């Protein structure tokens, strides 16, 4: 076994031990052969681990401690950051009336749940400045794809089927070109200028009668606000295209500026980022989309509507809808968390969140800029990008710096993204971290930069404290070893 590794629960097994005793059977026993076909009935006892309650609890606690999460340390991953996960969210999501409801229940018996969903939609309309919201899609990328299908349906309905291209900046999140491709469009890249913004002249040259839409995030993934957004809107609307807003990370602008007011026609949000849903490992997410009135009739169905003063229900009568994109009604548990968060913060609270997110990011950027190269020396929004190019000249790459951070119990920042900055590190501190935490991380980054100069091997050989050092990350992702092979000897 590797040093520091935990034994598997099977390896802890000792015959006869149990962690939980079932109550005595108080109904007549059943003969399985009357209920199940023979082929489904086990011939030998299953080899399950036998372990005491306390040992079992320690086993899982030990495993969970090997994971990095925001409950165990700072997590400044840019863009896809796990933001705040307030504990009250979990309490609300577990309330029996919500947790034990079922999507097949009759409308009249889930009025409370429908009211929460409807209210959440209303809040998201106000936050984004859009006319209609559908909560159905289960992830940011799915929201992108859904809205692009709607944009396609809109152009088709206008007899405008030659709009085959979606414009995406070179700094865009990878899901943008991927969603456009899956939705059947061809992507066209628009370059960034030397200020990290969309190059307007280049945009004019790629926009045309074949443009279906542009996908933008503002602030962009460099953390910079597209100041020319009104010009961009006019160029795209001028050629008959639509503006799509990637709102996965809205924590720089809430209660400050709204995608709808910037001229966007469609937007997705990640409730599992900005609106405090936990995420990771492909767990349940929620990527609602908001659209303006022109696109609303193409929304996925059913919509959740208010039927009269007191009754909520589903609207299926939507002849132009693109259809369903998710079984049932999306991930309700994440709606509850987002709703709890929005209600507990209120509009002023959300504004304060954005101000703190921006303040924290600028503070870190300014303290790090002497040590690391800062490619765009301007105020940032909720995140910023620095480059490890000075350290690379010493033979220490950004990947090595990221690995070395693990030794100090930090989740590394996003690295080598966006693609237009070499050796880049994209850092998002989020709004909820204290100055002491930010300083601790910055001091560690400065220490690692000093090591790169004076003792590079310690960085090149990092991590030193984890059970496994450097993995072949591609192999680990493509061919994960997830099954326990019992030792037969
Ligand atoms: C996270 C993220 C997405 C994709 O969201 P998923 O829920 O992971 O599909 C899209 N765009 C940006 C900018 C993001 O940060």
TrEMBL record:
Per the record's keyword annotation, is Oxidoreductase included, yes or no? yes
Cite the Gene3D superfamilies for this sequence.
6.20.440.10, Aspartate Aminotransferase, domain 1 (3.90.1150.10), Type I PLP-dependent aspartate aminotransferase-like (Major domain) (3.40.640.10)
The protein's matches in InterPro entries, at most eight in alphabetical order, are given as: GcvPB, GDC-P_C, GDC-P_N, GDC_P, PyrdxlP-dep_Trfase, PyrdxlP-dep_Trfase_major, PyrdxlP-dep_Trfase_small
- Cofactor(s), by name: pyridoxal 5'-phosphate
In this protein, which residues make up the domain named Glycine dehydrogenase C-terminal?
354-454
EC number of the protein: 1.4.4.2
Give the reaction(s) catalysed: N(6)-[(R)-lipoyl]-L-lysyl-[glycine-cleavage complex H protein] + glycine + H(+) = N(6)-[(R)-S(8)-aminomethyldihydrolipoyl]-L-lysyl-[glycine-cleavage complex H protein] + CO2
UniProt KW keywords: Oxidoreductase, Pyridoxal phosphate
- Modified residues annotated as N6-(pyridoxal phosphate)lysine in this record: 273
Which residue numbers delimit the Glycine cleavage system P-protein N-terminal domain? 43-309
Reading the lineage from the top rank, the first entry is Bacteria
What is an example of a GO molecular function annotated in this UniProt entry? glycine dehydrogenase (decarboxylating) activity
What's its top-level EC category?
oxidoreductase
Q: Which Pfam families match?
A: GcvP2_C, GDC-P
Q: Which family does it belong to?
A: Belongs to the GcvP family. C-terminal subunit subfamily.
Q: Cite the record's note on assembly.
A: The glycine cleavage system is composed of four proteins: P, T, L and H. In this organism, the P 'protein' is a heterodimer of two subunits.
Q: Which PANTHER family match?
A: GLYCINE DEHYDROGENASE (DECARBOXYLATING), MITOCHONDRIAL, GLYCINE DEHYDROGENASE, DECARBOXYLATING
Give the protein's biological function: The glycine cleavage system catalyzes the degradation of glycine. The P protein binds the alpha-amino group of glycine through its pyridoxal phosphate cofactor; CO(2) is released and the remaining methylamine moiety is then transferred to the lipoamide cofactor of the H protein.
State what protein this is by name.
Probable glycine dehydrogenase (decarboxylating) subunit 2
Tell me the organism. Answer: Corticicoccus populi
């Amino acid at each position: 076994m590797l040093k520091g590794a935990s034994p598997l629960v099977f390896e802890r097994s000792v015959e006869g031990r149990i962690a939980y005793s079932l109550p005595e059977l108080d109904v007549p026993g059943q003969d399985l052969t009357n209920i199940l076909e023979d082929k489904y009935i086990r011939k030998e006892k299953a080899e399950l681990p036998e372990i005491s309650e306390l040992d079992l609890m320690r086993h899982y606690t030990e495993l969970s401690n090997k994971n990095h999460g925001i409950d165990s340390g700072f997590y400044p991953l840019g863009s896809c950051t796990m933001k705040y996960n307030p504990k009250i969210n979990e309490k609300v999501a577990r309330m029996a009336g919500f947790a034990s409801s079922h999507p097949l229940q009759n409308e009249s018996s889930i009025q409370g749940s429908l009211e929460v969903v409807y209210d959440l939609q209303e809040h998201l309309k106000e936050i984004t400045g859009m006319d209609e919201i559908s909560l159905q899609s289960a992830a940011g990328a799915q929201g992108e794809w859904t809205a692009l299908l709607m944009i396609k349906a809109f152009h088709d309905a206008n007899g405008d089927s030659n709009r085959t291209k979606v414009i995406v900046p070179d700094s865009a999140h990878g899901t943008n070109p991927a969603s456009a491709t899956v939705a059947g469009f061809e992507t066209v890249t628009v370059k960034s200028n030397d200020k990290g913004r969309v190059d307007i002249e280049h945009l004019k040259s790629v926009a045309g009668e074949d443009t279906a839409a542009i996908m933008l995030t503002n602030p962009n993934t460099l953390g910079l606000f597209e100041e020319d957004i009104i010009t961009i809107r006019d160029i795209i609307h001028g050629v008959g295209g639509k503006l799509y807003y990637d709102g996965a990370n809205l924590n720089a602008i809430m209660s400050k500026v709204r995608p709808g007011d910037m001229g966007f026609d469609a937007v997705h949000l990640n409730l599992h980022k900005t609106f405090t849903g936990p995420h990771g490992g492909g767990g349940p997410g929620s990527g609602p989309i908001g659209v303006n009135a022109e696109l609303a009739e193409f929304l996925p169905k059913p919509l959740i509507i208010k039927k009269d003063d007191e009754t909520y229900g589903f609207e299926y009568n939507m002849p132009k809808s693109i259809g369903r994109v998710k079984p049932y009604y999306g991930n309700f548990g994440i709606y509850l968390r987002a709703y709890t968060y929005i209600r507990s913060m209120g509009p002023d609270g959300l504004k304060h969140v954005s101000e703190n997110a921006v303040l924290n990011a600028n503070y870190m950027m300014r303290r790090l800029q002497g040590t690391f190269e800062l490619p765009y020396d301007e105020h940032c929004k909720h995140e910023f990008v620095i480059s490890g190019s000075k350290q690379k000249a010493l033979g220490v790459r950004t990947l090595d710096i990221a690995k070395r951070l693990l030794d100090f119990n930090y989740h590394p920042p996003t690295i080598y993204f966006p693609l237009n900055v070499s050796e880049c590190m994209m850092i998002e501190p989020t709004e909820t971290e204290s100055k002491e935490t930010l300083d601790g991380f910055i001091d560690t980054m400065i220490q690692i930069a000093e090591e790169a100069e004076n003792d590079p091997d310690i960085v090149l050989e990092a991590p030193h404290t984890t059970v496994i050092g450097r993995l072949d990350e591609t192999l680990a992702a493509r061919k994960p070893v997830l099954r326990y092979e019992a030792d037969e000897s």
